[in-house]
């Protein structure tokens, strides 16, 4: 007798007396599927053609469902049913007749995990490829690329034209200073800043000299210069204003200034020069001598 697992289609050969006429519960050794197996019997014989009216004679053997051999087999199975010892939990686990088709049994749990992960990654890769090929995905990619290019262009413009931007919006100067990008909206810079301490008529005199250069390509207005004397902790000890002799300077030209202070305070360690009019930003430091 042969029974077939309804789940994995594994077939098993059993002795004719292994199942009672009512059947019993069995378990597949391949997939652990439980089902209620019943004995299968050969198909009944093809009945003879119906006799004619004059041949309608009752025959006792024509009313039987099974052959004599089937009935003997059933009787023998009924006698042996009570003598069959069931397996654990009354579940029979017969040996498989043959391996199910296309059954992929992993050699170990680690191998099974790797196979499962590989199949999952392959499926995810195919899914991403299908999604990327959709028209809406292409539109989104183009939109992201255009947005990135626009942001990069705006950032480059904000850095390249920061002086003009701060000149139009002075409040942004602090933002540029925060990221380490200084601005010079005046268009002037201090070079060759020097300090000299001397004595004149018995009084100490501090002399500060410097050159103002026009770093732009246009005529620049020269505002007044604020001279600040700083202490050891960069605190302001004294300040005064110097008015340049020339108020306009051509591109690339230099303008010398000379600032003197009689009786400077004690503890001066540095001098800072900045412009008073326009942007009052420190543009040069020099050590005091």
From TrEMBL:
The chain crosses the membrane at residues 142-161. InterPro entries: Znf/thioredoxin_put (IPR011723). Keywords: Membrane, Transmembrane, Transmembrane helix. Residues 88-119 are annotated as: Disordered. The keyword Transmembrane helix applies. Residues 1-35 form the Zinc finger/thioredoxin putative domain. It holds the Pfam family Zn_ribbon_4. NCBIfam families: MJ0042_CXXC. This is MJ0042 family finger-like domain-containing protein. It comes from Pelagibacterium luteolum.
């Amino acid at each position: 007798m042969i029974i077939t697992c309804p789940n994995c289609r594994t077939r098993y050969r059993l002795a004719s007396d292994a199942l009672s006429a009512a059947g019993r519960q069995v378990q597949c050794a391949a997939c652990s599927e439980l089902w209620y197996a019943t004995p299968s019997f050969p198909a009944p014989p093809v009945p003879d053609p119906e006799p004619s009216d004059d041949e309608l004679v009752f025959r006792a053997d024509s009313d039987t469902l099974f052959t004599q051999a089937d009935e003997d087999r059933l009787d023998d199975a009924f006698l042996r049913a009570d003598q069959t010892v069931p397996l654990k939990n009354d579940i029979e686990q017969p040996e498989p007749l043959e391996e199910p088709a296309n059954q992929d049994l992993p050699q170990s749990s680690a191998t099974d995990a790797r196979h499962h992960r590989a199949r999952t990654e392959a499926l995810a890769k195919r899914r991403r490829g299908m999604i990327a090929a959709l028209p809406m995905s292409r539109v989104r990619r183009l939109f992201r690329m255009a947005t990135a290019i626009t942001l990069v262009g705006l950032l480059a413009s904000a850095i390249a034209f920061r002086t003009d931007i701060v000149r139009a919006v002075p409040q942004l100067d602090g933002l540029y200073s925060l990221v380490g990008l200084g601005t010079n909206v005046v268009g002037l810079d201090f070079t060759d800043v020097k300090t000299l301490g001397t004595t004149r008529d018995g009084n100490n005199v501090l002399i500060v000299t410097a050159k103002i250069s026009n770093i732009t390509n246009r005529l620049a207005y020269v505002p007044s210069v604020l001279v600040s004397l700083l202490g050891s902790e960069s605190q302001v000890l004294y300040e005064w204003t110097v008015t340049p002799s020339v108020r306009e300077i051509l591109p690339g030209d230099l303008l010398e200034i000379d600032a003197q202070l009689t009786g400077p305070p004690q503890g001066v360690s540095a001098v800072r020069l900045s412009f008073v009019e326009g942007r009052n930003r420190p543009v040069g430091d020099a050590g005091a001598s």
